[in-house]
Amino acid sequence: MVERGRPGLSRAEKNVVWVQYRAGASFAAIGRALGHTRNSIYAFVRAQGGVAPVVRRRACSALTADEREDISRGVAASESVRAIACRLGRAPSTISREIKRNGGAARYRARDAEDRAWRTARRPKPAWLAINAPLQRLVDAKLRLRWSPAQITGWLRVTYPDDPQYHVSHETIYRSLFMQARGALKQELTAHLRTRRPMRRSKKACKEGQLRGQIVDAVSIADRPASIEDRAIPGHWEGDLISGAKNSHIATLVERTSRYVHLVRVTNKSTTEVVSALIREVRRLPDGLMASLTWDRGHEMSQHHRFSVAADVAVYFCDPKSPWQRGTNENTNGLLRQYFPDGTDLSAYTQRDLDRVAHEVNTRPRKTLGFRTPAAIFAESVAPTR
Predict the structure, then answer these.
(1) CA-CA 20 to 30 A from 76: which of 18, 105, 119, 141?
(2) 36/77 same-domain check
(3) Does 235 map to a domain?
(4) Do 234 and 370 belong to one domain?
(5) How far is CA 226 from CA 350, 352, 365, in A?
(6) What is the secondary structure of 252-268 as a DSSP string?
(7) Using CA atoms, how far apart are residues 315 and 126, in angstroms rounded to an integer?
């Protein structure tokens, strides 16, 4: 039987995914438990709309795998059909049909017969909304008016009390939205749901224990001294990651007063790697030339305490989804896209390559600096410290 889903997951792993997902585990936690990436788990669950497939069960009247093994042994021993049927407590006609439909006595194999029975027993039932066009159009129209599936279900039963053709459960509507294989309702209609979720979410799912949007002991940009804001004093920097193809990244550091740029090679965006790389880079600067660093809410700076202690630099974090609070860095990252267009594999660049690009950017005159270069202004800041 051909299984649908991510080819990297075994049948047993898929079962584990559904058990843990229903229990409220995050995609990242499930991925760590199974040794797969978060994206692999998400893609598998998303393909099913977050709805676990129904566990198939054998009909009580159907032959079992053990009975088929018994039939196979009886056939091999040249027992009669009636003798096998008597021993199993089955009708002789049941045993006779079983043997004939699976190649006859000469070719009967229990495992092949079991696989064939399990495969042919599937009776895919068309989705109710997929075969009922008038009802489908009505549900579609109400969803576009932002009615909830429960409201649609209740309204249909009140409006058409004696016409079962217009009765549908809210669960059927949800599944038709989340499971596109049903071919009933368009995925775009999920945008009209109150939650706007594209798939079913576990009732037990919560953010407890997850790091999304949370950095422990983060100091807000609102607490940053006013002296940093007016750019009068050099030594205050902004930082971020720019991303490329194949999950590659470069850390960018920009001094707020001079717009001087440092590019830092990182092998991945884990907080351990990024913070270690930033510590090495800060140590390349003259003492005291970095007093503070303002970063966004990315978890690559989760170990900000380690960075602060090792580099003697205060770290401030922007508010969520507020890139304008690091306007200097955002603007510089835009300039850097001349050298690293979207889709570029950034892992191919060595630190020497990055230093060369940074030098070129730092020696370009900038309008915001009165057409002086960041390098010249930065040099003025460094001179008194020598």
Answers:
(1) 119
(2) no
(3) yes
(4) yes
(5) 37, 36, 28
(6) EEEETTT--EEEEEESS
(7) 58
Q: Which residues of the chain have pLDDT under 70?
A: 1-7, 123-124, 181, 183, 203-214, 383-386
Q: Is residue 183 in some structural domain?
A: yes
The reply to whether 211 falls in a domain is: no
Same domain, 42 and 138: no
Q: Which amino acid is at 217?
A: D
Per DSSP, 292 falls in state E
Does one domain contain both 335 and 359? yes
Helix (H, G, I), strand (E, B) or coil at 63: coil
CATH code for the domain in which residue 330 is found: 3.30.420.10
Amino acid at 145: L
- Please count the structural domains in the chain: 4
Among the listed residues 332, 321, 314, 309, the one whose alpha carbon sits nearest the alpha carbon of residue 255? 332
- Give the helix ranges, DSSP H, for the chain: 11-22, 27-34, 38-47, 65-76, 81-88, 92-100, 110-120, 128-131, 133-144, 149-159, 170-178, 226-229, 271-282, 304-311, 327-336, 351-362, 374-382
Q: Could you tell me which residues come within 8 angstroms of residue 185 by beta carbon, excluding any fewer than 6 positions away?
A: 129, 136, 139, 140, 143, 173, 176, 177
Dist CA 373 CA 187 (whole Å): 51
**Residue at 209 is within a domain:** no
| 286/278 Cα distance (integer angstroms) | 14
Do 156 and 188 fall into the same domain?
Answer: yes
**Burial level of 49, CB count in 10 A (0-12/13-18/19+)?**
buried
d(CA 116, CA 277): 58
* Cα–Cα distance list, 43 to 12, 17, 80, 93, 164 (Å): 17, 12, 52, 47, 36
pLDDT (0 to 100) of residue 167: 92
237 and 381 inside one domain? yes
Could you tell me the residue range of the domain that residue 191 belongs to? 125-202
